[in-house]
Amino acid sequence: MPKIAVTDTGAINIIAADGSWTTAPLPPGVSLVAGAPRPTFATFRGHIYICGAYTANLVVTRFAQVLRNGIEAPTTAPTLTPGAGTTAGAGPTGLQIGYVSFLIKDGDEILCESDLSPASATVEVTDQALAWSALPTTTYTLANFMRGYRSIGGSVPLLAWEEPITTTTVTDSVATATLALRETAVVTTGADGTVVQDNDARGVMPYCRYVEPYGDAMVYSGDPEHPERVYVSRLFEPQAVNVSETSPRYLRTKDGSAVTGLKRWGDMVIVSSAKSMHALQGFDSGDYQIVRISSFYGALSQRSMTTVGPNGDLVFASQDGPIRYNGAFHEMADDTLKTYWRTDYQANQLNYEQSFASEDRWIAGGYKLVIPQAADATNKTFAYFGHWDPVRRGEKPWWVFDRQARKLSALGILTSGGVGGQLYSGSCDGYIRLENVASNGDDDGDTYQKAMTITHKHFFFGDQSGDEAHGFSYKDSDLFVKNENTALTVRFYGGDDQASSAATADCTLTLAASAVTTPRAKVARTSVHRTLSEVAGKGVTVQITATSPVGVEYRGLGISRTEGPQERPFS
């Protein structure tokens, strides 16, 4: 399979083993779609399928050739003429009808074949060769072969010959008995149960935004003309799709909603809309079915849909926050984060609908969702990261925010140096970087560096006590943290649940970097006790920051409290 990089300008760069690249030409008549929407990718038997970014769906073959997905059928019929006789029983006999198809081949591999041309006039012969002429032509310069199929007495057409696309005449002397052993044209089951020719099976999929492999087929959706439709290709022919309006094989979302994404999950494809989810399942074109599994949740972006965790749960970005699906739907954000998410989504709807995500399987273990920012934004990348450990215990993930001054364009799991499962990000400066390098204080590589801010939720202790005189005073803290190389700043905000919005903290502590703990040399310190001053109120928010952390491990905290000096009134 080739390695490729697609730029914001639409260039498809083929990356060589030494890291160098060349820009592959786009097929004739294909250009970048206005607004340059993010492409979606799928792989099938060494080929890469690209949808959404270009005016036609594309395929990058394993031979690093960029093709349009599918090829239009010939529009004119060939001419068949009886030729010279042959040895008795060794030539075509009976009523003969001819058809032609176009092919794209690389060596012996057929990359794509079209539907058949209109039928020729019927010719009757007895042990006579057939001269094929008036062979159709195509303007698609990447088509390089054509095939001739022959029907005997109206039966399903059979392959008679294959020649280069430049061929103008063919002499066909394949005997009727031999032809019967050849490959047939595509067939289907007619209304009466008989096998009949299917001349719509290898249609060309119109421009679409989404593509996803499913078993030995390919699933497409996001056709702007019919956004509710889902198309499934022929088995083993991912470029062959029946898009006919007279013999339709496509499926539709049950509520008629526009598709926003496709994702293979288990033995089905999850088909998402903005506020509903469907499941597509089947084995071939005769039995694919689509059923609705939710009329409430839906994915904002196909690229946000990814499998996470040891059980392969499907996680996606919705209007209501990140959602996890494992046969049932689970909201992954608490009320505070959900409120923030909804407010930010309403203000930046297009950004969320272009979001993309990946699982991080290495040290952090979680789900990273990038929300692209405006080109002139100070922080050009804003991301949510959900740590997965609590999910294993049946809880919601721990969520953190990640900001960078450089624009991220892609996330993915790569294997490097024999180590797999590590998260890498690709950015606008052309580099791909390993994320979460604990020994590197700036693995983001930009002006924002790797600044760390951990803000706890606002802790209430029992009831919501009153002010300093009537509520709690917070006296001592134990911070469980390993910070041998990096100094930390810890801020305490006392008050109600909006306390952390204050301009200054009630109490600020500095935890110096400490590689050793005296008197035990070379033993890392992992807890720090500090006395607090002037921190009081209903509750407390704790915030921990580091400018450029290296090897920091934060494990939690404890806080002691006392009652206020006055008794609270009875109520």
Structural account:
It is a single chain. Strands 9, 10, 11, 13 and 14 form a five-stranded antiparallel beta sheet that branches. Strands 18, 19, 20, 21 and 22 form a five-stranded antiparallel beta sheet that branches. Strands 38, 39, 41, 42 and 45 form a five-stranded antiparallel beta sheet that branches. A hairpin with a 2-residue loop joins β35 (408-416) and β36 (419-427). The mean pLDDT is 89. The chain is mainly beta. It has four helices and 46 strands.
User: How many beta strands in the DSSP annotation?
Assistant: 46
Task: Report the average pLDDT across residues.
Answer: 89
Give the low-pLDDT segments: none
Give the amount of beta strand, in percent: over 45%
CA radius of gyration: 32 Å
| Largest beta-sheet characterization | 5 strands, antiparallel
Instruction: Determine the structural class based on helices, strands and strand pairing.
Output: mainly beta
- Number of H- or I-type helical stretches: 4
End-to-end span in angstroms? 73 Å
Shape: elongated
Q: Tell me roughly what share of residues is in helical segments.
A: under 10%
Describe, in short, the structure shown.
The chain has 571 residues and is mainly β. Helix content is 5%, strand content 45%.
